[in-house]
């Protein structure tokens, strides 16, 4: 009789342990598609493009690769979603900047700060050096940003598009050579120079 009780206790303990493991597994599997994309952008910034694979991301999220493949057909499908997320946000930032209050000069400086301090921007540009889809997205975003910058400079009486290109080039290149804080200070100096020349 004592032996049966012992077996019964072990059975219930095992059943409770399995139920807890199953509940934990179910919680892990409930990661949304957006959770994976957000984790991908974070991994891109902190670890580089090589981290955009199912296994390392699953480890970081404390889940299984099965959850990844529930949301994405394969790794290239995931890459496409990460690129689209960055591109959508970048386009949304331009649209938001169009409706911001303030003088064209204030808006130019705010927009510059937003771009040069974006860690995702630098990371996606690094990836774009060897990924065609990322390169295409970057090119499209740059075209929108160039249009916006040309518009702002036009409002300031500077119609030469080369100045807009110079500003965009600075926003792209300065984070690569000076870090985000120095990059913004350098961009501000460029804006000061451009405004002094009008």
Provide a descriptive summary of the structure in words:
There is one protein chain. With 198 residues, the protein is mainly alpha-helical. The chain has two domains: 1-30; 32-196, Tetracycline Repressor, domain 2 (Orthogonal Bundle). Helix content is 83%, strand content 0%. The protein has helices at 2-29, 33-47, 54-61, 65-71, 75-98, 104-116, 119-128, 132-155, 161-196. α2 crosses α5 (75-98), α6 crosses α9 and α8 (132-155) packs across α9. The chain is elongated, with a radius of gyration of 25 Å. The termini are far apart.
Detail the poorly predicted runs.
4-9
CATH class of the largest domain: Mainly Alpha
- The CATH architecture of the largest domain comes to Orthogonal Bundle
- In the residues, how many domains can be counted? 2
Structural class: mainly alpha
Total of DSSP H or I helical runs spanning 4+ residues: 9
**CATH superfamily placement of the largest domain:** Tetracycline Repressor, domain 2
Radius of gyration: 25 Å
Instruction: Say what the CATH topology of the largest domain is.
Output: Tetracycline Repressor, domain 2
Strand percentage lies at: under 5%
């Amino acid at each position: 009789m004592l032996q049966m009780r012992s077996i019964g206790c072990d059975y219930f303990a095992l059943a409770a342990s399995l139920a807890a493991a199953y509940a934990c597994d179910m919680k892990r599997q409930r990661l949304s598609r957006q959770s994976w994309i957000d984790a991908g952008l974070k991994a891109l910034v902190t670890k580089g493009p090589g981290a955009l694979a199912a296994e390392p991301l699953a480890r970081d999220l404390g889940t299984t690769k099965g959850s990844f493949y529930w949301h994405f057909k394969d790794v290239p499908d995931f890459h496409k979603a990460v690129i689209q997320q960055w591109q959508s946000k970048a386009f949304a930032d331009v649209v938001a900047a169009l409706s911001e209050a303030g003088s064209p000069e204030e808006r130019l400086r705010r927009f510059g700060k937003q771009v040069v301090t974006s860690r995702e921007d630098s990371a996606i540009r690094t990836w774009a050096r060897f990924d065609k889809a990322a390169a295409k997205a970057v090119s499209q975003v740059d075209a929108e940003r160039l249009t916006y910058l040309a518009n702002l400079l036009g409002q300031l009486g500077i119609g030469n598009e080369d100045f807009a290109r110079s500003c965009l080039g600075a926003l792209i290149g300065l984070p690569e050579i000076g870090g985000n804080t120095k990059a913004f200070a350098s961009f501000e100096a460029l804006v000061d120079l451009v405004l002094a020349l009008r």
